[in-house]
Amino acid sequence: MKKEIGGKMRLKVLLIILGVVVIAFGIVFYFYGPYSEAARGGIKGKPKKTPTPTQTSTSSPSLQPSSGPTGDLGILYGVTVDDVSGINQTIEAINRLPQKMTVRIVFDRGMSPSDYQSDVDKIDAIAFTMGEPVDSSDMRRYSVDQYRSRFDEYVKGLGDKIDIWEVGNEVNGEWLGSSSDTSAKISAGYDVVKAAGKKSALTLHFNEGEDCPTYPEFEMYSWINTYVPDKMKQGLDYVFFSYYPENCPEISPDWNAEFNKTGQIFSNSKLGYGEIGINGGTDAQKAALVNEFYKKQISHARYVKGVFWWYFKEEMVPYTNYLWGVLNTAINT
Predict the structure, then answer these.
(1) How far apart are the first and last CA of the chain?
(2) Per-position DSSP letters for 235-286, written without gaps between them
(3) How far is CA 180 from the centre of its chain?
(4) pTM for this predicted structure
(5) How confident is the model at residue 249 (pLDDT cuts 50, 70, 90)?
(6) Exposure of 57 by Cβ count < 10 A (0-12 exposed, 13-18 middle, 19+ buried)?
(7) Burial of 299 (0-12, 13-18, 19+ CB in 10 A)
């Protein structure tokens, strides 16, 4: 009897160990598998936040009237707001900057346009706006039909307050899933935006150079040529680069050459940076990056800057933060 019990116990222990191993393997595959964000050799590390209800506080800084986006928006001085909690501090930080800013607003999955209406109204009163209904980190969560519906809902709900719609974010990133699916999704989003007569933007994941690890399929120019529809190559209003230097630390891109090459493919689009940031790093490294890209001069005739520092809310709000002062000086010179 004792031997029988002992054998059963050993079997149970082995089954428990096997279960733990299977679970551990699944976790590792999820985070480091071929389509994970880590698989590209450097995690960008965008902070994901729990959606926050609209702030209803009546205490807010005085707002400057918007001149309205009639036609060309000109040079874009962009920042990203990926979290609308504490909106009044964010508004004050934007409003105190010396240029009229263009603010990318990231709309979280699971939230509706009405959840953002009050916050978008406040931002639109002092700045130009770019709406991002789907971030690259969420692309795999949407089918093509869901992606189209998401854009339709947001363009109808906030279209009179958003000046540019980002129809795809970091579209050639390995972590987005099937490239053919991503192509169909951005095509659907583009069709919705164009049918509404709105401006469209596409952001590319810059992964050029031998030091930028990627699968051949996702190399930026190869992906563009294969998966960006011709209608978008001819009709996009803006094409941007997303660049995180820690992903490719050994290269120093020839940005004039890169914009010239991209401009030949997108012959009618304005060009710039759609997302810049650094995951971690010192204040000195961040300040150097802010100064470099907000001051950068590019010779291409259709270059419009942008930048859209991803960590504006985290690192430059309130306006008393060190990096806000760096940005303030960079765009005032």
Answers:
(1) 86
(2) H-SEEEEEE-GGGSTT----HHHHHHHHHHHSTT-EEEEEEE--SS--HHHH
(3) 20
(4) 0.82
(5) confident
(6) exposed
(7) exposed
**Alpha helices for the chain (secondary structure H):** 2-32, 87-95, 113-124, 144-158, 179-195, 220-227, 230-235, 255-265, 283-295, 312-316, 322-330
Write the pLDDT tens digit of every residue in 81-110.
999 999 999 999 999 999 999 999 999 999
Sign of the dihedral defined by the CA atoms of residues 71, 77, 80, 85, in that order? negative
- 261 touches 300 (CB < 8 A): no
CA distances from 287 to 151, 225, 294, 301, 326 (A): 35, 35, 11, 27, 6
If you ran DSSP here, which 8-state letter would residue 13 be given?
H
3 state SS of 214: coil
The count of residues in the chain is 333
- Taking only the tens place, the pLDDT of each residue in 156-199 is 999 999 999 999 999 999 999 999 999 999 999 999 999 999 99
Nearest to 290 by CA among 239, 223, 232, 245: 245
CA distance 292 to 243: 13
What is the domain partition of the chain in residue ranges?
Answer: 2-32, 38-330
Q: What is the DSSP letter of 228?
A: S
Checking if the pLDDT of 120 tops 60, the result is yes
Mean of the per-residue pLDDT values for the chain?
84
CATH of domain 38-330: 3.20.20.80
Residue 314, amino acid: E
